[in-house]
Every structure is written in structure tokens, then in C-alpha cells.
Write a structure and sequence with these properties.
Largest sheet: 9 strands, mixed
Distance between the termini: 26 Å
Number of strands: 17
Number of helices: 7
Radius of gyration: 21 Å
Structural class: alpha/beta
Order of helices and strands: EEEEEEEEEEHEHEEHEHHEEHHE
CATH architecture of the largest domain: 3-Layer(aba) Sandwich
CATH topology of the largest domain: QueA-like
Number of domains: 2
Shape: globular
Strand content: 25-35%
Strand order of the largest sheet: 2-1-17-16-14-3-12-13-15
CATH superfamily of the largest domain: QueA-like
């Protein structure tokens, strides 16, 4: 069945787009969706404790956001803005670059926070799709980002963020994302300790968030959208503990769409499906109507994933998920619609607007059981 991108649209008043984080991370609201009863209920995020059982496995993405937004100027004086997306194997960077006439060979002189030129120079080594460029730098970036880089807040956030750590999860470790895995922003150390005390197992995966967080779905038909690969990893130790807990009867609860995609990629790889995963959803959609397959163990891996999850996809690993409220017509909204059902999800979003929930990165949360 053909799906159109417009099937995932909804009306959102701009005043519901959260512009700043709450003073307390876990003070956000929590909407709970029960897929069996098709019911919707409203809670505080700290109430999430009551929905976990001893032996459940909570899996979160521990990727840390790099200060990936850089400012520079061309030799002619024209201003340039760079958003680093991912480092390539050859040491060069894929980036979104704002500025005119940035052809291959163009040089960009990077600026410090006082807008003075530094010794760091970027050269455009390849022109990619749209504003994307491949860049090489005359010096390693590791020593520069913390001094001249800026936190890359999404374009719908217009207020300054005074504390950059509020755009990081409390468990973030390996740096590499161009945007935060925002469903995890609601967790505090105390809340994670309370989950541990209840017998919940906490594990992490890594997926470095890249281009598709900033790219809308432009194809008219969902199946025609191309999702870009993002680097992901599940360690052998974590895979073993997750599989053992699942076999013991625990539920696998993912924190955010990036954790979902990593776990589902790991389940597909355990089934011997490797390489490009773009066609999996389309193949699934042509089969049975259920959104879930019998559980598949997860396999450790470290590789790019291009898994695109939209309605019709058969979930093989994840039993429940915590997520934020996503942009209209986005691949993230399509993923949660695949998990809960499109009609139920759009009804939940209508309810969220009516109940004045806060949307997007610094907004409220949803638990889909």
C-alpha cells in the first residue's frame, strides 16, 4: 500500500514548540499510549517508574553532541556557517554549509567566538547534495571544537541555551552527534538510580545522530524517501545482557527513535540481514498486517545503519519506547506511527495539542507500551 508523506501531517501552534529546557529535567509531562486498549493517559515524567517491572531492560543512546556549528568567512569576506555531520574514514567531514558559491576548492577561514580569524582553514573537497559539502581541515578539529564550536540547536529553537549540558543526556559518553537523542533528556541520575533499585536493567547503544534529524521528508511517497546512514554500535557485552534479560522475560524498552533503530538493526543482523536496510520496511509492508514479528535476539555490531522504519515495518526487538513529540511529516513521526499505528498516533498528537503539551527537542515525552 502506497503511503504519502502528507499522511503524517498535523497542525501545531508554534507556541507549543518548547524553546528552552525545564529547570528540572524530569519535570516534563508524560503521555502514555496503551496500544492494546488504544487508551491515552496523562502523567508526570517521574511516573514512568510505575510502568517498569523488575527485569525490564531500558536501552538508551549514549552519543554525545559535539559543538558542531562553526562560523567562518571566505577570502572575499562572505560569511559561512558550517554544521558538521559526520567524520569520514579519510578524516574529512561531511557537513551542511551555508554560504554562496562554495564550489570545490573553496577555502573557509574559521572564526573564534569574538569573530576573529583563527589558524583553522576548511577546504571544500567535494560538492554533495544541496547544501552538503565534504570538507578537509588544515589541522585536526579535536583541539578546536571546544573553543570555537557552538552547540547545534535545531532550527526551530530560537532562544539561546545558556547551559550547553542541557542539550546532553546525563549518560552521554562518546562524542559524535550533530543533535541530541532528545528522548533521553528527561532522565536524571536519581531517576536512573530509582529504576535500578526497582530491578530495571540499564544498557546503552551508540548512534551518532546526523543529517536526517535536520532533513524533512521531501518525497511525495514515503517509500521514495532516502534516509542517510548513521554510525551505530552495540557492544558484545550489552548484546549478551539484553538477550539474557529478554529470555528471562524482561521487556525491551528503548529510549528514543535512535535506540529503536539501533536495536532493530541489531536484530536484523542477528537474522543474517546486513548491508543496506532501506528496503526492509517496504518488504515488510507487503506481508502480514501485524507490526510485530516473533522476538529476534540482537547481535553486536559496529557499522553504519540506514534502516528506515515506517508503517508496515515488523518490529523484531523493541517492546516499548519512550519518545518526544516529533515534527510533522518527519521520518521520526513515521517510526512512532509504525510502532503504535498511524491513526492512533495522530489521535495522540491531536490530544497533545489540545492538552498543551510541549513539543520537539525540549518538549514533553511519550511512553508507548
Amino acid at each position: 500500500m502506497t503511503m504519502h508523506t502528507s499522511d503524517f501531517n498535523y497542525s501545531l501552534p508554534t507556541e507549543l514548540i518548547a524553546q528552552r529546557p525545564l529547570a528540572q529535567r524530569d519535570a516534563s509531562r508524560l503521555m502514555v499510549l496503551d496500544r492494546t486498549s488504544q487508551s491515552i493517559s496523562h502523567h508526570a515524567f517521574t511516573d514512568v517508574l510505575r510502568y517498569f517491572q523488575p527485569g525490564d531492560i531500558l536501552v538508551a543512546n549514549n552519543s554525545r553532541v559535539i559543538p558542531a556549528r562553526l562560523y567562518g568567512r571566505k577570502p572575499t569576506g562572505g560569511k559561512v556557517e558550517i554544521l558538521l555531520l559526520s567524520q569520514q574514514e579519510n578524516g574529512r567531514w561531511q557537513a551542511m554549509v551555508g554560504g554562496k558559491r562554495l564550489a570545490e576548492g573553496s577555502e573557509i577561514y574559521l572564526l573564534d567566538t569574538d569573530e576573529n580569524e583563527t589558524e583553522l582553514v576548511a577546504t571544500v573537497t567535494a560538492v554533495l547534495d544541496g547544501p552538503q559539502r565534504e570538507l578537509s581541515f588544515n589541522q585536526p578539529l579535536d583541539g578546536w571544537l571546544d573553543t570555537i564550536g557552538h552547540t547545534p540547536l535545531p532550527p526551530y529553537i530560537h532562544e539561546r541555551l545558556d547551559d550547553a549540558e542541557r542539550y546532553q543526556t546525563v549518560y552521554s559518553r562518546p562524542a559524535g552527534s550533530a543533535a541530541a537523542p532528545t528522548a533521553g533528556l528527561h532522565f536524571t541520575g536519581d531517576l536512573l538510580l530509582a529504576l535500578r533499585d526497582k530491578g530495571v536493567i540499564f544498557e546503552t547503544v551508540t548512534l551518532h545522530v546526523g543529517l536526517d534529524t535536520f532533513k524533512p521528508v521531501e518525497a511525495e511517497q514515503v517509500e521514495a524517501h532516502t534516509i542517510h546512514s548513521e554510525w551505530a554500535s552495540l557492544t558484545p557485552e550489552s548484546a549478551k545482557r539484553i538477550n539474557e534479560a529478554k529470555l528471562a522475560g524482561g521487556r525491551l524498552i528503548a529510549v528514543g527513535t535512535t535506540a529503536v533503530r539501533t536495536l532493530e538493526t541489531a536484530a536484523l543482523r542477528s537474522a543474517g540481514i546486513n548491508g543496506s536496510l532501506q528496503t526492509i520496511s517496504a518488504r515488510d509492508a507487503s506481508g502480514e498486517t501485524s507490526s510485530f514479528c516473533p522476538w529476534k535476539p540482537v547481535a553486536a555490531f559496529t557499522a553504519p545503519t540506514d534502516l528506515f522504519i515506517y508503517p508496515g515495518y515488523k518490529f523484531r526487538a523493541v517492546d516499548a519506547m519512550i519518545t518526544n513529540f516529533h515534527l510533522p511529516q518527519s521520518s521520526l513521526l513515521m517510526l512512532v506511527a509504525a510502532f503504535a499505528g498511524r491513526d492512533f498516533m495522530l489521535r495522540a498528537y491531536e490530544t497533545a495539542v489540545t492538552e498543551q503539551y510541549r513539543f520537539f527537542s525540549f518538549g514533553d515525552a511519550m511512553l508507548i507500551m
